[in-house]
From TrEMBL:
Residue stretches in coiled coil: none
GO cellular component: membrane
InterPro entries (alphabetical): YycI-like
Keyword Transmembrane on entry: yes
Every Regulatory protein YycH-like domain range: 56-265
UniProt keyword Cell cycle, yes or no: no
Record's protein name: Transcriptional regulator
Amino acid sequence: MAAHGPLCDLTDREAKRVDWSKTKTIFIMVFLVLDIFLLFQFLQNRDANKFGLLSETSAEDQMKEEGITYPELPNEKIKESILLAKRKEFSKEDGKNLKNQQVILNEKNKLAATLEKPIIVSKDFDPNELAGFLKENIYEGENYEFWSFDKKTNTIVYYQRFGTRVFYNNTNAKLTLLLNENGEVVSYEQTFLEDIKPMNKKEEVLPAIKAIETLYNNGDLPGKSRITKVKLGFYNLLKSSSASYLLTPTWWIEVNGKDMFVKAFDGEIIEPDTEEKIILE
């Protein structure tokens, strides 16, 4: 016989309370799991956004953070062409008007000379002190620019320039002054490029900052690197045994006293030949 009355009603209410308690617990667990899931999603998105921001940070900002310094860079757009040039064949005529020297032409592409009166060079050498000598005593001497003074070998090196652009690291466009033990210029050797002309229409080159960033992204600029010089010139595009040469616009970047070169059209880093600049000591 079924039970009726107050006792039955009490049992039903307790059962409902138990059911609601279970339901409430289930809801709490569901919301807790949902909260954990949402928190996980939030942290994932935050980390992804942080990574995105780091990825979008410019190389320029990263270099600044790593203490890499460089001088003021040209801001204007620069256009240049690839150049075609020929090695000059020197003749006796080229040496006729050269003063205070005995010219030697043992090689057709090299002029060598011994000075009759040595030229004194000061201990604190300044390239300007030989400017007059180059102009008056060297074939096309005003078209060479100082590059280095190696006190170990007692040589002063200049490279030929075309306008304001130097032919970097080029043995076919080089002037080497030889000094004696007293620090006097006693002889020299010279090569020269002529018939220089553009091979193509002028095109815009990479900005200097992009050339620096190329070195940075390649791992060539460790933290605290000090870039002291950035200048556009030309570098041999291809090594050739012929009399003609192609020269491509190239950024010269001096880093911690070391010379680095980046092609200004495609950003390719050039591994220099054996010739390297030696800083004045």
